[in-house]
What we know:
Blueprint: H1 2-20, E1 24-25, E2 35-41, E3 51-52, E4 55-56, H2 57-72, E5 78-82, H3 92-101, E6 106-113, E7 123-128, H4 134-144, H5 153-156, H6 169-174, H7 176-196, E8 201-207, H8 210-213, E9 219-226, H9 230-237, H10 239-258, E10 268-269
Parallel strand pairs: 2-5, 2-6, 6-9, 7-8
Antiparallel strand pairs: 1-10, 3-4, 7-9
Helix pairs in contact: 2-10, 7-10, 9-10
Amino acid sequence: MKTKLYLIIVLLIIPIISMANIPIDSTKTNGKKLFTVVLDAGHGGKDPGKYVANTKESDIALKVVKLLGKQLESHRDIKIIYTRTKDVFVGLDQRAAIANKAKADLFVSVHCNAAEATSAKGNETFVLGLHNNAANLEVVKRENSVILLEENYEEKYAGFNPNDPSSFATNLMIQEEYLDNSIELAANVQTKFDKDLKRKNRGVKQAGLAVLRLSYMPSVLIETGFLTNKEERTFLRSKSGQKKVANSIYNAVLDYQKNRDVNLFEVEEIDPSNVVLDP
């Protein structure tokens, strides 16, 4: 009786052991996973963003995004999705929803900065975080103000006060796993701007920006320069300036992607009976 019981146990264990020892061949794939980037041209339609000297932030953001997208689309392993390609209004929740639905690897939102002091200049890139100084708070108020233009915004953004850090503290915990990657991409962008544009590097900053709060992947919001600064406004309005800005972001994204190529392959199980072991 005991012998039969032992035999049954052995017969049950063997399949489990066999399955546990099936080797995974990571060099063979069913195809390389596309690296998906969602490009978000800030503002648009009834929301022009900052408007200075007949220059709309929404127009410049869209032109830069289209140039950036065209460059990235030249890579077969990169998939580009746009939140808008025309001068139309898109809610912040819709922008984030597009990225979340696509299960994007990156969300890149492009904007232009503004300040009361016309001498203010330079580039800065934001990731999600607590806005703990007056300068960051001004950016937060400006970029989140579009919420008020959306229908049923009180319902869609229930419980979210852009001026109250505690209102998005939960999202910070949920997105903590993405924060390091967001900071890495943001640092790449600032490094490229510093090298290519030779403009003031205002650094990587954290702020409670709604579009980043709602996007569940590495996400950045790039302020490409100050429209309130005549020199930077002229640069951003020019085709050459827009190309330089787009090219800097393009190189930053490629550098970020290179660090993740090892994770872009889907592994497949192989039949252990076909494995030839070394003697």
